[in-house]
């Protein structure tokens, strides 16, 4: 028996033995490896992973009191946090970089941190504060003879001075920038930034022809720009408008809007790729959990044969597996929250596009009609832009509204509405194959039901509401009935904004709507065609 126990112990030890590795590198080499790994992830755009490796490198350098490298690494982290709009963390890193640079006696690293602080203020819109900080950093960089530091500062300093209207300082530093640009390759990013700063200064001072000529030169040469291309187009449109060319300005502004919408779609595509990577990571973790369960079953089977010793081994393995499962569950919960957060953001952007940009364009169209503008083609272009933005809004809507059938949308609507405890809502769908109802029809009917329920709650006289949806071979009928008394005179309901909205929604899908209210309560009935029709343009 004792030989059997000894053999089992050797087996367990062999299963849990670590994989042979080479000897651990020196601490300095570990820090270097962390930093190189972080640089690799940053170049590939994986900024979160880069931050993790840089912070690991900082921990190693902190143990060695290597203040010079800590200052440099904190400056890198400050730039990375600023790029990802984590401004508080960026400022914290600049403060730590200055402290380490003072201890190391590194003036260039110190004023690099000062410059990073000024860039953060510029990003936050605190241009007056940014101008003071960046001007101080530039002057010290000039004293130190650090051309690279001056190049890092100059573009942000020009932006800040232009924003605060410090013309004298702006002229001085613009001359400095022009001098620096002479020593740079024509396609260098700093040279491009100086050219763009010159454009902005000319535009701010009313030199529209000079600004327009500079913009067109940059476009013609196809140089790589610091600002997004759509922003450069907007500057060109503004110059054209200021020079009395509204038609050209409108055409250019429209192209800028298209390019900006393309950038938005690229952001969402990037989110999709990141979600795919997260899903693959979660799948790998799940497989690892399944393997751990298999190991646990083997340990339990061995425990039956090896009595007390096996029981001890099982307890140890179970505790280890439990800790891994807890860690895995924590990661799964965090990933789920991130996914829900992005879905919420998608919905918010969709509603902002619809409620903001679409309504603005609608108002523009109404103004053109009211002024009897003869240019019908211009009005047609405005309508096209509005339709395009509305299409983007639909593409950004959460998947629930794009693909859920009507019976599920109604159930979700009733479950989410806020109602008093005295009101009960019943729901009874009838029919099969709800997915054959067009998505636009299903969405508009669900919104009509929501507005009808809101009216019942607003009147505060109803104690029960019945919602039914009946789907037959050719039509779908939505009925909302409450027992709230409403002794208004006949025709008074025509003044209700909610009723106008419901009629508009019904009209967009070719449905018929009837609304009856009186002493016995209120009944809404909407009938629409059930089979797919050519999709009308939907507002919601």
Ordered list of secondary-structure elements with their pairings:
Elements: H1 2-16, H2 27-43, H3 47-64, H4 67-83, H5 87-104, H6 107-123, H7 127-144, H8 147-164, H9 167-182, H10 189-204, H11 208-221, H12 229-242, H13 246-370, H14 376-396, H15 399-403, H16 406-416, E1 424-430, H17 439-459, E2 464-471, E3 475-482, H18 497-508, E4 512-518, E5 521-529
Parallel strand pairs: 1-2
Antiparallel strand pairs: 2-3, 3-5, 4-5
Structure write-up:
This protein is an alpha+beta fold and 540 residues long. It is 73% helix and 7% strand. It contains 18 helices and 5 strands. It has a 5-stranded mixed sheet with strand order 1-2-3-5-4, covered by helices on one side. β2 (464-471) and β3 form a beta hairpin. α5 (87-104) runs antiparallel to α6 (107-123) and α9 (167-182) runs antiparallel to α10. The radius of gyration is 33 Å and the shape is flat. Mean pLDDT is 76; it is low at 1-25, 489-495 and 533-540.
Concise description?
This protein has helices at 2-16, 27-43, 47-64, 67-83, 87-104, 107-123, 127-144, 147-164, 167-182, 189-204, 208-221, 229-242, 246-370, 376-396, 399-403, 406-416, 439-459, 497-508; strands spanning 424-430, 464-471, 475-482, 512-518, 521-529.
